[in-house]
Amino acid sequence: MLIDWFTVGAQALNFLILVWLLKRFLYKPILNALDAREKRIAKELADADAKRAEAQKERDEFQRKNEEFDQQRDELMTKATDEVKTERQRLLDEARQAANALRAKQQDALAREQQSLNDEITRRTQEEVFAIARKTLTDLAGTSLEERLSDVFARRLRKMDGEAKAGLTDALKSASSPALVRSAFDLPAEQRAAIQNALNETFSADIHLRFETAPDLVSGIEFTTNGQKVAWSIADYLASLKKNVGELLKEQSTPEVEPEAKSEPVK
User: What DSSP string runs through 94-119?
Assistant: First the structure.
């Protein structure tokens, strides 16, 4: 069989032309499209990875902030709870202190009122007792008792201690008027003379005297000169007894200070 080289050449040329045409107008655009698609896909994948990384980063940041928020919330709640407990305890302590202070004031007022009542009862009782004693002794006093008292007064003058005697001596020397002798009853001349002699002997001088009656003296005699005084009377004993009784009652009525109650914290 004979080969038609012309036909073979023409077919080969046609094939080459076809290949070139396919490559030029089909394969190359397709390859370019495939390359473009691959690049687009690679870019989209890269963008997706970047977005995924950004999303992961944002999720991690959100998680961190959420954890910080939870921690801050817990801290704030703890702090607020502690502050509420502290404020509650403070208010309870203030209320307790106010109640204790009010109770103490009420007790103090009640104690003062009771003490005032006791003092008033004691004072009135004391005044009545001493008034009765004074009146009784005044009613019992008489001339014979006064004479006996003048003798006792004269002995007291002679037994006067050095300090009192020195004070009266200075007062007598500086006095510009006669010394005064007061008694509840008018002393007879004999008792006046006895007192005069006792004073003269005591102070080794001639003492100028003036005698007066003083009904307020309860069975006693009083000698005064230039602001100095020496006396002996039942009234002095009553006054001394009254003072001692008053001091004793005052000591017994002094309220004891109660220890302040300690407040315990409320749990």
Answer: HHHHHHHHHHHHHHHHHHHHHHHHHH
